[in-house]
Write a structure and sequence with these properties.
Elements (H helix, E strand, L loop, with lengths): L3 H34 L14 H24 L7 H26 L3 H12 L8 H19 L3 H53 L2 H10 L5 E14 L1 H5 L4 H21 L3 E6 L2 E6 L3 H22 L4 E16 L5 E5 L1 H11 L5 E5 H7 L3 E11 L3 E11 L10
Parallel strand pairs: 4-6
Antiparallel strand pairs: 1-3, 1-4, 2-3, 4-5, 6-8, 7-8
Helix pairs in contact: 1-2, 2-3, 3-4, 3-5, 4-6, 5-6, 9-10
């Protein structure tokens, strides 16, 4: 038995193809029927050749059947995933093919429409369950019975059964081929989907999800201006002297362990990591500036845990500023999502003018987040390119006031 995901995929595919062809037949059958029935329009029904009434009934029934399939798909979309609905449509199509085979074959010995209907079922209405092959055999039996009632001679009967037998054999082989081809197609699609998911995972690790989607959709990314973006820079104080005593592979391992912990925190707070440069780490917040403050506090805690576990004495120097900035992608090869503007420069100065183990923030950050955190004012300092600025130390989360006791 086919696996359930494949069965569901095959049902949806076969139903969609069947509806497509049903629309075509529903549009083409009326003019074709009018052209075929034109010779009988001026003749009284009692003078029609045998079988014409059955042919007209078949034409009407076939038109209603194919219109019914189209309407069912339109107004009952759940049928697109129903294997029972697909099997029912197969049975209906095969009954129509057998009926026209009996009528057309009996009148003119022409099985072209029968062959077209049977091969339509075999090639298009591919079902996960083996319901079609028994239909071909039963159809051949019905045609054989009709031929036996129509001709009495054994040789003539065998001659009459040659064409339907060939059609049935063709349908059985076509059925087997189409099922195998669908299995191969599904496997190829799964492989392609896995490769695409793996490529997307790499792309989404390099770029923010919205930027990656825009790049895939438009093959370019337009720069976006933010009126108030929070920017955080973090640097491991004294890491240059610390790294001199380490071999290169050990140095990479240390940075990987520390920055991997930071990556988890960035994802936890829904922020955007921009880049790492050596032992520096840059993160931005498009809206939630308070999340950037929580990240800074947790980064300090993460480095303390690393020190406890590894016997080191590393400390983070963190700076945060908020203001207008522009974000986008530069280049066409090895492209990089980055942020530019004076806000970025000031955030970098906040970090470089801070102290190990402390979070140094600008007045803009203080004013926007003072309800969330506790701060300590610092003496105004000179910031390159900005002159003297009032800055603050972010000490921790704001203390929660205990509710007053009811007397």
């Amino acid at each position: 038995m086919a696996q359930q995901p494949f069965r569901e995929w095959l049902v949806q595919k076969s139903w969609a193809h069947g509806v497509y062809y049903a629309k075509a037949v529903a549009c083409l059958l009326p003019p074709a029927a009018l052209a075929a029935d034109a010779p009988y329009f001026g003749v009284a029904p009692q003078h029609w050749p045998p079988g014409v009434a059955g042919l007209l009934a078949w034409q009407l029934t076939a038109e209603l059947f194919f219109i019914g399939v189209v309407l069912a798909d339109r107004f009952l979309p759940r049928l697109r995933n129903s294997e029972a609905a697909l099997n029912t449509a197969c049975v209906g199509a095969m009954l129509l093919a057998t009926w026209v085979g009996v009528v057309h074959g009996g009148m003119w010995g022409d099985l072209a429409i029968y062959a077209a209907g049977a091969t339509f079922v075999a090639a298009v209405m591919c079902t996960p369950s083996p319901v079609r092959r028994p239909l071909y055999v039963l159809s051949f039996g019905v045609l054989g019975l009709a031929a036996g009632l129509r001709v009495g001679d054994g040789v003539e009967l065998l001659a009459a059964l040659v064409n339907p037998f060939c059609v049935v054999v063709l349908c059985i082989e076509l059925d087997r081929f189409m099922l195998a081809r669908n299995v191969e197609l599904y496997a190829e699609m799964q492989l392609a989907e896995a490769e695409r998911a793996r490529a997307d995972k790499v792309l989404y690790n390099v770029l923010p999800a919205s930027i990656a989607d825009e790049l895939k959709r438009d093959d370019k990314v337009n720069a976006v201006k933010f009126d108030n973006m929070g920017v955080l820079f973090a640097d491991i104080a004294g890491f240059t002297s610390f790294s001199r005593a380490l071999p290169p592979d050990a140095l990479v391992l240390v940075l990987n362990q520390i920055f991997s912990a930071f990556d988890g925190l960035v994802e936890k707070y829904g922020l955007e990591k921009i880049k790492t440069i050596g032992d520096a780490y840059m993160v931005v917040a498009h809206h939630r500036l308070d999340a950037l403050g929580r990240l800074a506090l947790d980064m300090g805690e993460a480095i303390r845990r690393y020190n406890t576990g590894n016997g080191t004495e590393l400390a983070m120097r963190i700076g945060i500023h908020a203001g207008p900035a522009v974000a986008g992608v530069i280049g066409v090869k090895r492209f990089l999502y980055d942020v530019w503007g004076d806000t970025v420069n000031v955030a970098s100065r906040m970090e470089s003018s801070g102290e190990p183990g402390a979070v140094h923030v600008s007045e803009a950050v203080y004013l926007q987040t003072r309800q969330h955190f506790s701060f300590a004012a610092r003496e105004p300092i000179d910031i390159k390119g900005r002159g003297r600025m009032s800055t603050y130390w972010l000490l921790g989360h704001a203390a929660r006031l205990e509710p007053a006791a009811t007397p």
